[in-house]
Write a structure and sequence with these properties.
Chain lengths: 294, 300
């Protein structure tokens, strides 16, 4: 009996502790939301004391100079970097996951290294290169740098998805007389798509939020994180918190919708897919009834 | 890989032409990405190393002369040993606290999450959805003088140096832990998720106490996650300078602050490059030793 009580306690103790840690993760988000509704002049101290509620900052999110311009710059850079990194990274992931070739280990290492390098080293070494090569710093050097550090994350994400694929699905497609291109376009690609989408979302957020590497290679271009950094030295306009809250809500919404869509798709797709796999795994000499069924 | 065997190994039936294409195809797929990494990761690293050996008396305007100035390294290490040690200490503390906080969270989600697993996991990444600079500024509000944490600590009569929390080492470490905790939780979750709960039941059936059930079954099986998580936390924490600058003072500055200001404010490239290189080499050595010790080669 005592043992059972102890076990019950132990189980829920872990869960409670986990939820407390989650609360800790959300604490600053709460502060960001609260600060976005706080009535404050530019020179008021940036604290929660003497809190007065206002909707002003939400009515004029672009009220602070440059804030929306830099936000736009960051979005454009993130879109370009995501496109580049997703295309290059997906191609690499396919090669690495599905072929054995000479130099595969070395390539894996080269992909892993940027993830194991502190951002400050990556940023400063790119700066050293651009300065030595006389390349003017600005918009495009930021894009180049972002594609570089997003690339590895795309490769790892898509590769993981490819490794988790059931090879029998492609074998089944080939057995059913699909040629290579058809198998790729109609079976492999749709199955890998969630991995590619996840990789693209990850790239976008990595690029959009990057400060350290960008700071080294930006020249006179100002991205949103750089604007926030500059503001933290001078005085923080409350609109920053409006944009922070807005970003949080939008991304949370996107991820939740994706989650719901995934659950729905799974429910709908479960029947035909299971028919297919049963047809492949069962070694019974009766392929025709399976085909008739579908 | 069996898919590949099936696709590529059409046996003697497969014709020569597609086989040849299959041999060159992976290289063609890899080429653009590899070129990008070579030009913008490998060559810059070489350039950084070269820069670290330039004559430090040059400047950006007059240009630098390559004099194989190895003394840049000894000068840099001699002058900034304290910053290196502080970075190492902060990063180790950050990793330890992240593990202490992250393990229960990952364990709770993976083994007690049930239907809510995915939603809880989204909540772990959710703080990433706003800019980390904005979140760090929010920490500044939370830890500020007269802010909520200081008030609670005062009420509990916990003595604080100068009565404040902001601009102290604990504030910097708290910010680092907060910023890098998800990097710890995600790999831990990935390896705990694979843990078969029946193994834990079996341990209990064999009269293992909860503590030894954890130390002898759950923990060893989640070691790959622990190794990956500690690396993903330690590496960025060691090179960070944002938290030290926003939540600390010059007395809490880490090596990242020195590198950053030497590159971007002072313009002392050779010495900054030497510091960058020492940081990277130090991290590589520590990581290699650690991964060997932990006995897991498969980190990611």
């Amino acid at each position: 009996m005592a043992h059972r009580i102890w076990r019950w306690f132990a189980d829920h103790w872990v869960l409670a502790l986990g939820l407390l840690v989650l609360l800790y993760l959300f604490l600053p988000i709460g502060v960001v939301v609260a600060m976005s509704f706080r009535e404050a002049g530019r020179n008021a101290p940036y604290t929660l004391q003497n809190y007065k509620f206002t909707l002003d900052h939400w009515r004029h999110p672009c009220g602070a100079a440059e804030i929306c311009g830099t936000f736009g710059t960051s979005i454009v850079i993130a879109l370009l970097a995501t496109t580049g990194a997703t295309i290059l990274g997906t191609m690499m992931a396919f090669a690495l996951a599905r072929s054995r070739f000479r130099g595969r280990g070395a390539t894996n290492l080269l992909v892993f290294l940027p993830m194991a390098t502190p951002e400050i080293v990556m940023g400063s070494s790119l700066l050293a290169l651009f300065v030595a090569g006389g390349v003017p710093l600005g918009f495009w050097t930021i894009v180049i740098a972002h594609v570089m550090f997003c690339l590895s994350f795309v490769v790892v994400t898509v590769k993981a998805r490819l490794a988790g694929l059931d090879p029998r699905l492609q074998e089944a497609a080939m057995d059913l007389y699909a040629n290579e291109a058809q198998t790729f376009l109609r079976v492999t690609l749709p199955l890998v798509a969630p991995g590619i989408v996840a990789a693209a979302l990850l790239s976008f957020s990595l690029s959009f939020d990057d400060f350290i590497v960008t700071n080294f290679n930006s020249g006179s271009t100002v991205t949103f994180p750089m604007y926030v950094w500059g503001a933290s030295q001078r005085g923080i306009p409350p609109q920053i918190n409006v944009i922070g809250t807005f970003m949080f809500l939008i991304s949370f919404g996107i991820v939740l919708i994706g989650q719901v869509a995934q659950i729905r798709r799974k429910r709908r797709a479960s029947t035909p897919l299971s028919v297919l796999t049963i047809g492949v795994t069962e070694p019974t000499p009766a392929p025709t009834p399976v085909m008739e069924k579908s | 890989m069996s898919a590949l065997g099936h696709l590529a190994g059409g046996g003697p039936v497969a014709e020569a032409a597609p086989l040849k294409r299959r041999k060159t195809l992976p290289y063609l797929l890899l080429l653009p990405g590899l070129l990008w990494l070579t030009f913008f990761f490998v060559i810059p690293a070489v350039q950084l190393f070269a820069t670290s050996l330039y004559d430090p008396s040059g400047s950006l305007e007059t240009g630098y002369a390559m004099t194989w100035q190895f003394s840049n390294y000894s000068d840099a290490i001699g002058e900034y040993a304290g910053h290196f040690l502080r970075s190492l200490g902060y990063a180790l503390l950050t990793t330890a606290f992240s593990l202490l906080l992250g393990y229960p969270l990952a364990y709770a989600i993976a083994l007690k999450g049930g239907r809510f697993k995915n939603i809880l996991l989204i909540c772990v990444i959710a703080p990433f959805f706003t800019s980390f600079l904005i979140r760090t500024l929010a920490w500044k509000v939370i830890l500020s003088d007269g802010g909520p944490v200081v008030s609670v600590l005062n009420w509990l009569h916990v003595p604080l140096p100068d009565g404040r929390l902001l601009a102290t080492a604990p504030a910097v470490v708290a910010g680092l832990v907060y910023n890098f905790l998800p990097f710890m939780v995600l790999p831990l979750y990935a390896s705990l998720e694979k843990l078969d709960p029946r193994l834990l039941e079996a341990a209990s059936d064999l009269y293992a106490r909860p503590v030894s059930r954890f130390t002898r079954v759950a923990l060893p099986l989640s070691m790959p996650g622990v190794v990956a998580g500690t690396l993903l936390t330690f590496i960025p924490a060691a090179g960070d300078y944002i938290n030290a600058q926003l939540l600390g003072t010059t007395r809490q500055y880490m090596i990242g602050n020195v590198i950053q200001s030497k590159f971007l404010r002072i313009g002392d490239y050779p010495s900054a490059a030497a510091l960058s290189f020492v940081l990277m080499a130090g991290i590589l050595v520590l990581v290699t030793v650690y991964v060997r010790r932990a006995g897991t080669e498969e980190v990611l």
